[in-house]
Amino acid sequence: MQAADKKPRTSHIDLAQRILDVARAGGFEPGARLPEQQIASLCNVSRTPVRAALRLLAEQGLVGWVQDDGFRLAADLSTLSGSLTDLPSAEEDDLAAAILRDRAARRLDGTVTAAALARRYSTQRTTVLKALTRLSEEGLIERAPGQSWMFRPAPDSPEAIAESYDFRLALEPTAILAPGFRLDGAKASALRQAMEALLAAPDSTFDMRECQRLDREFHALIAAGAANRFVADALAAHHRLRQLPGATPGVSVFRLRQSTREHLAILDQIESRQYEVAADLLKVHLRLSRSQRPHAANRGAPALTAMIRRPG
């Protein structure tokens, strides 16, 4: 098995997910054999990375290994979520997270080089380049002239946060109103359940971090439903920037609860195909969030639930 202190490669983590996807699609049940050669053919890779990915899954208890028998599925895939969340992160992923934290704390300049980062974090240049490539793929950093990399502007100051809301006000309601908008029903249902469970918790145990995560998921869901690919891509890229440390302003539990209820009200209207009402509610929601004043709902802008005109 893989040494506990050695981080897995990103490619092995991705392949482990693909193996589970293939097994789920094939209707594999617990105890089913997982022949390395067959999996390699299905995933269009060689046996070596397949073996590493299977060992990674074995460490998580999702598959088992028996001498002279090989790997067998150990988990009931019908009870697992669509994607893995408990796999250890790759070394370059941990480094990418450290780079973002240091940038948010202004310990890193807006422009960096791989060589300087390798010295700072005492790691190999190849690992740094993989981390920078990952950040680049997520739209958080981009190549600059020479050997430099430049962080993209993030909504991490009052002025930038205001500009972020202006950008979202211009595009998110438009995404809902444009012909062809389609909500992912399965993700919307899971998100609704998570938000309702969050609201059921008392203030003393209210998970603010989980609430902020659900907020990002909700707005990413709206972006993903846009039929216009340019609108969808622009919003998706912007929401990735909102995940950066320091990009989420601190607000009260009262406002977070209010915001979550607004999300649910917007979902209600979208699922009822009342797109114009949903877009109007979304505009008010974004304006209230921009103001970040819990009493704003009763001063100048009515609460969302009061604005909904129900049929009949």
Description:
With 312 residues, the protein is mostly helical. The chain is 57% helix and 6% strand. The strands form two sheets. A three-stranded antiparallel β-sheet has the order 3-5-4. Strands 1-2 form a two-stranded antiparallel sheet. The longest helix is centred in the middle third of the chain and has 20 residues, at 158-177.
Low-confidence runs (pLDDT<50, min 5 residues)? 1-5, 293-312
Question: Roughly how many Å is the radius of gyration?
Answer: 23 Å
What is the end-to-end distance?
64 Å
CATH topology of the largest domain: the name is: Four Helix Bundle (Hemerythrin (Met), subunit A)
SSE run: HHHEEHEHHEEHHHHHHH
Helix content: 55-70%
The gross shape turns out to be globular
CATH architectural name of the largest domain: Up-down Bundle
Instruction: Supply the CATH class of the largest domain.
Output: Mainly Alpha
Note the total helix count.
13
Mean of residue pLDDT? Answer: 82
Q: How many domains?
A: 3
Biggest beta-sheet profile: 3 strands, antiparallel
| β-strand amount | 5-15%
Secondary structure class reads: mainly alpha
Fourth CATH level, the homologous superfamily of the largest domain? GntR ligand-binding domain-like
Main sheet: strand order: 3-5-4
Let me know the number of strands. 5
